[in-house]
Amino acid sequence: MADMPIPCSHSQCLYKNIPKLLLERFLTKYLEISHPSLQKQKYNYTLLDSGGKWEIVETSGRKFIQNVSAINNIYVGKHCRSLDEKGRVLLPSKWRFGQDVNDIYVAIQSASGCITVYPPKMVENLSEQVARVSLGDKKGQKILTRLFSQAEQLMCDGQGRISISKQLSSHADLSKDIILVGNFVTFSLWNPERYESYISSDNDEEDDISRMLMQLGL
To answer: How far apart are alpha carbons 116 and 107 in whole angstroms?
Structure first.
């Protein structure tokens, strides 16, 4: 098992208030997505104080991560938006990472009553994880069929907008005013009232779809 120290600049407001253990878990998931080759290797992760951007380098046979600002494909915060007459919503500028207009997003009808959107980076990871569900796992395959038969492909146009279909809008009860909520590697579209009800609820029960997403590591 190799050691991989991870520098962490606590001068950056985005990370300084996040517990180190939680940040390590987030960064581990990011590495699995952005550097699939590392999944075949086991590493001990350690956060080190450092500045600058992050990138993987190798020195004396040891791999390091440096250069923090390279890890910028993250979705955080809550943003109030409006759907236009064609069902389009403008993504926050901080959530646009120079993707090509042909890049695919996948929108899933969440059991929580919102729309969860997987951006291009996560779509790649999702594809790999779904392929690992055995064809002999009848329950798993049934849940995947249910989940993805209701999912839709989205694309982001040149102005940073994605189009939400009537079927998706109906599931999440979306009208003109909506809320975009970042989930770090994905983001969700919510009806404002439903979002407030969800946040204030203490119901921790999970249905089969939620458990399957956990199994997929998503």
So the answer is: 6
pTM of the model: 0.62
Q: 91: which 2 tokens?
A: 């993504």
Q: Which has the closest alpha carbon to 173: 199, 150, 192? A: 192
- Give burial (CB, 10 Å; 0-12/13-18/19+) of 203: exposed
Dump pLDDT digits (tens) for 188-205.
999 999 999 998 876 554
Q: Report the alpha-carbon distance of residue 123 to residue 104 in Å, rounded.
A: 8
Pick the CATH number of 78-215 from 3.40.930.10, 3.20.20.140, 1.20.120.1630, 3.40.1550.20: 3.40.1550.20
**CA quadruple 211, 126, 17, 68: dihedral, nearest 10:** 160
The DSSP code sequence of 90-150 is EPPGGG-----TT--EEEEE-TTSSEEEE-HHHHHHHHHHHHTS-TT-HHHHHHHHHHHHS
